[in-house]
Amino acid sequence: MTTADYERNMILSNVDYKVIGTRPVRHDGADKVTGRAIYGADFDASGLLHGKILRSPHAHARIVSIDTSKAEALEGVKAVATTADFPQKDGNKWLRDNILASDKALYAGHAIAGVAAASPHVAEEALALIEVKYEVLEPVLTTQEAMAEGAPILHEGLTTQELGEDSGVVSNTANHFQHVKGDIGKGFKDADVIVEREYDTKTVHQGYIEPHSGTALWGPDGRLHVWCSNQGSFVVRDSLADLLDMPVSKIRVTPTEIGGGFGGKIPIYVEPVAAILSKKTGAPVKIVMSRKETFEGSGPTPGSNIKIKLGAKSDGTITAAHAWMAMEAGAYPGSPVGAAAQCVFSTYDIENALIDGYDVVVNKPKTAAYRAPGAPNAAFGMEQAMNELAGKLGMDQIDLRLKNVAVEGTRRPDGPVFRRIGAKEVLEAMRDHPHYQTTKPDGHGRGVAIGFWFNIGFDSACNIAVNSDGSINLTEGSTDIGGSRTSIAMHAAEVLGIPVEDVRPSVVDTDTIGFTAVTGGSRTTFATGWAAYEAAQDVRTQSIERAATIWDVNPDSLDMEDGVISSKTDSELKMTFKELASQMSDTGGGITGRAAVNPKGVGGSFAGNIVDVSIDGETGKVTVERFTCVQDVGKAIHPSYVEGQMQGGSVQGIGWALNEEYFMNDQGNMANSSLLDYRMPTSLDLPMIDTVIVEVANTGHPFGVRGVGEANIIPPTPAIANAVSDATGNIMTQLPLTPGAVLESGK
Amino acid sequence: MTTADYERNMILSNVDYKVIGTRPVRHDGADKVTGRAIYGADFDASGLLHGKILRSPHAHARIVSIDTSKAEALEGVKAVATTADFPQKDGNKWLRDNILASDKALYAGHAIAGVAAASPHVAEEALALIEVKYEVLEPVLTTQEAMAEGAPILHEGLTTQELGEDSGVVSNTANHFQHVKGDIGKGFKDADVIVEREYDTKTVHQGYIEPHSGTALWGPDGRLHVWCSNQGSFVVRDSLADLLDMPVSKIRVTPTEIGGGFGGKIPIYVEPVAAILSKKTGAPVKIVMSRKETFEGSGPTPGSNIKIKLGAKSDGTITAAHAWMAMEAGAYPGSPVGAAAQCVFSTYDIENALIDGYDVVVNKPKTAAYRAPGAPNAAFGMEQAMNELAGKLGMDQIDLRLKNVAVEGTRRPDGPVFRRIGAKEVLEAMRDHPHYQTTKPDGHGRGVAIGFWFNIGFDSACNIAVNSDGSINLTEGSTDIGGSRTSIAMHAAEVLGIPVEDVRPSVVDTDTIGFTAVTGGSRTTFATGWAAYEAAQDVRTQSIERAATIWDVNPDSLDMEDGVISSKTDSELKMTFKELASQMSDTGGGITGRAAVNPKGVGGSFAGNIVDVSIDGETGKVTVERFTCVQDVGKAIHPSYVEGQMQGGSVQGIGWALNEEYFMNDQGNMANSSLLDYRMPTSLDLPMIDTVIVEVANTGHPFGVRGVGEANIIPPTPAIANAVSDATGNIMTQLPLTPGAVLESGK
To answer: Over chain B, what is the mean pLDDT?
Structure first.
C-alpha cells in the first residue's frame, strides 16, 4: 500500500461500516467450547517420547560437573541432553544458557538437562539419576541487592553499558541509559510544588492457564518440525534457527491453540530441548511443563525499584519530571526498563524531563514480556506521584492530568512526536463518567490512573482464496489468543462487502504463510488485520477486472460496494460477488489475493481506570467495589473482544495490585509456585469491570485501528493504590497491597 | 497470464534450464521412506469411532426393507446410517445410491448401510445384525448381455440417449453417440484392403496399494471436516457438498498422503457415510475399506466390446475407419467410452472416420477412471487392427503408422485440430531404437503399438512466501501421487533462479489454498506447475520492484536472472535474491506471490511400445522379455519422475494384458477379490522397462510441458497382443492373454 493508496482508502471511525464494529460469534468458538481444539499438550504422534527437564535447586551456583551416565543407563531412557549438545556458536550464549545452563545455574528452576524416555514417569525417574555437582554461591534477588557495592556477580564477563558506552566495569547492571528533554534543573527551580518518592514492585507471573509445551521431530532429512503453543510460530522458528544454527527454512513450526500467553509465550524454553532429544533419538519428543516449572522456569515480569520526582507550578503545570527506574532482568540482561522509559511520562506534555533506566541482572528467571511490559511498574510510581501532586496542589486528580495531557504534536521525552492520540478524550470520558460523577460511598476510597502503551507494526501476511459459493478462505500466521481470527476476518469481510460468516480464517504453520511476527505488542488485529485488508483489496481489484472482462468494459468504469460490482455508467451491469464467484473458473480461473505488510502507522493507546475500594479495618483486606476501565481503541473492530481485552487487563492489574508476587526465601527459592499459593483473582474476588470504549481513530490505519491488548493493564496498580491511599490517608509505595501491607502502611 | 505474456515467457525445450530437467531428491522422500507420512488410515482423533459398511451379496436385487434395529441395540454401536439419512434432493440419486443403495442393489459389494461403533470389531458384528430383505434379480454382467433383447433392466427409469436425443426407450444403454468425419462409405469403397475384427476386454482394477479410507467430524457449528486419501481434496469437497446439500465453504477436506490412485480415488465412497455417522454421533468416524471391499465396492475400469474396421490403399494410406465401442458403465451411467472415442483414431490422420460409442450399465461396480480411461480398451482393438493391416499390406508396422500419422493441423474425428504434437517423433524414435533395429531372438514375438491421451487444464492455485534466508515456501492443493510436490516446486525455482532445495512445497487443505482440481487427467505438473510458475513470476516482479525501491531506480531498468537482480545500465547495481530476501522486512514488508490459473494450452501426449515376448509352448504362459516405452512428454520437468510414470503405466498395461481381470461367477460375484488371486505383476514378472523420453515442446505451456501420467498405459495391451500374434500367428481378440487363452487362440 503506498501512502497515496492509504490516504485514498483511509476510512475513519465515523464511517458507516457493515461488519466492523459488530459482534459476530468467533469462528473457532465451537472447537474450543467442545474441547476439539488441539493445544500444545494435546499433540500426539506415533512413537512419541516424553521429555522432562532437570532444574537447579540453587538460585546461584557454579556447575562443576554433570554426570548423566546413570540416567542414560535407566531402562526406557532414550536420550539425555545438556547444553553441550547445542552448537557452541558465538553471540547467543545467554539465550542458549537459559535453555540449558552451562557454567552457572542462575536461578532456582534453571534448566540443567533434558531426558527423553518412553514414558513421562521413566523420564522423571531418570532426572533423579543425573548427578550435578554445584558450587553454591550467594544469590542477589532484587535490584537493590544486585546494585549494592560488593554484591555477588552473576556474569563475570558482564560490563555495564553506561549511556551507550562500555564502561569496562564488571557489575550486575547491564545497562544504564537516559532520555533527556529540556533541563530538569531549571524545571525544578521553576516549580512551586515538588513531590518525590520511591516505589517498589515485585516479580509477578503472567499466569496463563496453559503451561508451556512443545513437541519436536528432527527428520532424517535434517528438517525440524515443531508443534507448540506459542505467541508466534515464526518467532519460535527464528529462535530455534539461532540456537540450533540452522537456516529458518529447515524448520517448520506448527502452532497449536494457545491457552493464554500475555507475552510470556514469546520466548521458547522446552522446544530446543525437545529438538535436541529428537535429533538424538529419531523419534518425536514432547515436553510439557508443570505449573511449578512454569513459575520457576519461564519468564515472569520483573520486580522494580522506581523513584519519581515531579515539580509543578501552582496552576498545575508540570515543570519538570525525573524518573529513576531499575528493573530486574532476571538471570540474563534484557528487562523491559526500556519500554518503561518510553511510557513513564508519555501521557503528559512535560517541558523538562529526565529518565534514567537501569537493566539489572538478579538470580531470578530471565524476565519475559507481560502485557505492556515495564509500563505498569512505571505507572505505579508516576500515577501515584500525580495524585500526590494533585493533593499538594489541591486540584482534582483528573483536572491535573488534563492540564498536562499529551496531545497530537507532543514530543515524548524519548523522542517520538505523537500523531493523533486519545489521552485527553480518555481523561474526559473518565471525568464525565457516572462513576466519577457519583459521590463515593462512605468509607470507600477512590482512585484514578491512566497509562500509555504504543502498539507495534512488524510483518504480517495474509492469503485469500475465493470459493465458488462466494465465501472466502483466509489464511494467516498470527497465533489467535483473544479472537483475532475473527477480528482479522472482519477486515476482509468489510472490504468485500460480505458477511464475516462467509470468511473462513485459518491460522497455519510457518511453511504455508508469509512471515508473520509475534502475537504481542498490541499488533495482531492492527497488522495482520491490515494484511487481510490488503489481501481483500487484491481480491476486490481482480473481481472488478474479471467483471470487466465478462462484460467487455473498462475496469475503471466499474465499482464494487457492499458485495455488488456495478457499472458507474450502465445501470444494467450489476453482479454480486457471489455471482462472480460462481463464474470464476470459466472466465479465467480462480481468484486469490495476497498481502505481506510491515505497517508503520502504529497508534498508541491510552487506558484509564476509576476504582472504588473498601478496606476491612481489622484485616486490612482490600475489596475492589467498583471498577471502570476507559480506553482509546482507535476503532473497535469487534467491540466484545475489545471489552474482553479491557476486562482481562484490568483483572490482571487487580491481581498484581492486591495479591500477586513471587514470594521467595533468602536462598532465592519460590515459596508459592502453585496456583493455590500464587493467588490470582477469581470471579468471586472481582466486581463487574465496566468498560468504556473511546474511539479516536488512528490516522495511520485504514480503519483507524489502534492496538488494544496491553494499555489496560497499566492503570490498575496505581489506581487501586490511589484508592487505598484515599481510604487510608497513607501512600502505598510497595506492591502487592496485601492486607498486611495495608495495615502496616500507616505505621 | 495473458496470451501476450505467455508468448513473451514461452520457453521451449531447447532452452538452457538450470532446474528444469534435473533430477533432485523429492521433498517428501524422507517422510515417506521412514514411515512418518500420514496416510488415510493413519489418521486418529480423540473419541474416534470406527465405521464399517454392509454390502449386498447380490449383483442385482430389489431392496424390500432394511431393519437396523438389532444392530443399533448392540452394545458399543453408536449409530447406523442408510441412504435415507442423506438429503433426498433431485439430480444426484445415482451418486447417492452408489454411496448407500436405496431401492436396488446393483452389484455384489454395493454398500447398503454403515455402522459406527467404539471398535471396528463391534461395528463388524453389528453389520451381521442388519436385516435386509432382498428380492433377487437376474444380473447382466457384460455389454453383450446388457444390450441383448429382453435383458434384465437395471434402471426402470433409464431411457437411451440416442445421438443426443432422448429415445424414450427403456434399456441398459444409457447413451449412444457418434463422431463423424468425412464419409466412411466412400472411404471403404476406395480401400484396397480392409480389416475388420471384434475385441473384448475385461473389467480390471487400478490396484492401488492403499485401500480407500476417510474420517469425518461433523462439528456442532455445522461444519464438516474430512481427512482422507483422495486424488483431489476439492473434488471430495464438491462431492460431499452435493451429497449432503451443503455449501462448499462449510466443508473442509484435509488430504492425507495417498498410496496410489490412478483415477480410482477421484470418486468418494466411505467419506459421506462417515460424515452422516459423525453427524449422528458428534464424534469423528473413520472408515477403512478392506482389499475385498476395494475390489467390490470401488470403481474399476470397464470391460468393453469393440469392433474396428479399417480400409487402406495398397500404399498404406488409410481411407476409412470405423470404431464401434460398447463399454461397461457399471451400475450407473458414465463409462469412459467418451474418452475412448476421442482417442481411438487420434494417432492417425484419417479422412473418413466414424466412431460409435455406447455407454452401457451392467451389474458391476460403477466404473471409475483408470489412467487414460477407455483409451487402452480402444487401442487394444485399433492397434491390433493396424498390425493386421500392415500384415495384409506387407508393410512394416511402424512404417504403416508413420504413413498415416497425425501431425500439427490434423483434425481428430471428434473435432479438435491438433496443435504441435509428437506422434511422428515417437514413431521415429521407436523405429530408430536399437530394440527395433535388433533382430528379435529366435522364437520370440515382437509387437509395437502407440496410443494417444490428451491432458486437461482446469483450476490450480499456488501461493509462495519468501523466507528471510532466500528460500521460498510454496503452497498448493494438488494431491501428490508421483512426486508432483517436487515437479511443481521446480517451476518456481526455475523462474526465481534458486535451487529447488530452496523451495519447500506443501500440499494443504481446502481451507487454505485456492480451488485446485483433481490430480488426474495428466494435469498436475502441467496446471499446478503453471500456477507455481505464475506465483513465482509474481514474486519475481515484486523482487525487481523492491530492488528498484532500495536503489531508487526505475524497475524497468532492472532484470532478474539466475537469482540475481541487476541493472541493465549500471553494473554496480547487483543483488542476489537471497540478499534481497534478508532486507524484505525493513524495505516494505515480506514478499509473497499468488496465482490461480485455468490454463487452456493443454498438449496431448503419445506413447509407444516395442515389446518382445516368449511363450511357453506347453503352458501358453507369456513372458515379456524386453520392453521399451517411448513417450513424447513435451518437456520433462523431472526426468526420473517422468520415467517412473512411463514405467508404472507400462507395468500396469502388462498386468492388464497378461493377467488381470475381475473373475466373476454367473451370479456376478467376484471370485478373485484379493491381491493373491487378482494377479498384478511383481518385479519378478517383469523385465527392465526401458524408457525413451521424446521432447516435442507443448507450445501451450511456458516450459513446453505435456501431461505425461497416462498415455503410457495405452500401448502395452495391443503391443503385447501383437507380439503374441507375431510369435503364434494367431490374432488375440480377448484380454487377458492368459496361458489358457494363448493355448486356445490357435484352435
So the answer is: 96
pLDDT (0 to 100) of residue A747: 73
How many whole angstroms separate alpha carbon A680 and alpha carbon A685? 9
**Residues in chain B within 8 Å Cβ distance of A220:** 30, 34
In chain B, the number of structural domains is: 3
Residue B156 falls inside a structural domain: no
In a domain, B104, yes or no: yes
Cβ contact A515–B585 (<8 Å): yes
Rg (CA), chain A: 27
A591 closest CB neighbour out of B248, B591, B596:
B596
Banded pLDDT at B287 (limits 50, 70, 90): very high
- pLDDT over 90 at B603, yes or no: no
Contact assignment for B514 to A591 by CB distance below 8 Å: yes
Q: Is the pLDDT score of B114 beyond 80?
A: yes
Cell numbers that stand for A20 in this block: 466492523
DSSP state of B729: S
Contacts of A589 in chain B (CB under 8 A): 459, 596-599
Q: Are residues A574 and A471 in the same domain?
A: yes
Element of type H or E holding B70: helix B69-73
The answer to whether residue B11 scores a pLDDT higher than 80 is: no
Q: Which residue of A has its CA nearest to B283?
A: A36
Say if the Cβ atoms of A248 and B469 lie within 8 Å. Answer: yes
Q: Which residue of B has its CA nearest to A597?
A: B589
> Three-state SS for B461?
strand
Furthest CA-CA distance within chain A: 86
Higher pLDDT, B1 or B583: B583
Q: What percent of chain B has pLDDT over 90?
A: 96
Co-location of A508 and A624 in the same domain: no
Q: Do B594 and A593 touch (CB under 8 A)?
A: yes
Kindly indicate the confidence band of residue B665, based on its pLDDT and cuts at 50, 70 and 90: very high
d(CA B403, CA B401): 5
The domain that holds A332 is classified in CATH as 3.30.365.10
Q: Which of B297, B315, B347 is the last residue of a domain?
A: B297
pLDDT beyond 90 at B170: yes
Give me the long-range contacts of B399-402 (CB less than 8 A, separation at least 24): B399/B316, B399/B431, B400/B316, B401/B347, B401/B348, B401/B427, B401/B448, B401/B450, B402/B427, B402/B428, B402/B431
**Are A541 and A588 part of one and the same domain?**
yes
Q: Do A475 and B512 touch (CB under 8 A)?
A: yes
Judgement on whether residues A234 and A381 belong to the same structural domain of the protein? no
Domain range enclosing A664: 304-455+602-745
Suggest the residue from A27, A249, A591 to mutate for an interface test with chain B (most B CBs closer than 10 A): A249
**The domain spanning residue B68 has which CATH number?**
3.90.1170.50
In terms of domains, do A623 and A683 share one? yes
Judgement on whether residues B671 and B733 belong to the same structural domain of the protein: yes
Chain A positions touching B223 (Cβ under 8 A) are: 30
Picking from A597, A617, A652, the residue at the C-terminal end of a domain is: A597
In a domain, A677, yes or no: yes
B46 Cα to chain A: minimum distance (Å): 8
**In Å, how far is A368's CA from the nearest CA of chain B?**
24
Does B590 sit within 8 Å of A461, measured CB to CB? yes
Contacts of A514 in chain B (CB under 8 A): 465-466, 590-592
Same domain flag for A388 and A252: no
Position A67 scores a pLDDT of: 98
From residue A440, alpha-carbon distances to A384, A626, A728 in Å are: 19, 10, 14
> What pLDDT score was predicted for residue A16?
85
Residue segments in chain A with a per-residue pLDDT below the cut of 70: 1-15
The answer to whether A589 contacts B513, with C-beta atoms less than 8 Å apart, is no
Mean per-residue pLDDT for B296-318?
98
CA distance B515 to chain A (A): 7
How buried is B565 (Cβ within 10 angstroms: 0-12 exposed, 13-18 middle, 19+ buried)? buried
pLDDT exceeds 90 at position B7: no
Say yes or no to pLDDT of B746 above 80.
no
Which residue matches cell numbers 484508592?
Answer: A723
A343 lies in a domain?
yes
- Identify whether residues A507 and A582 lie together within a single domain: yes
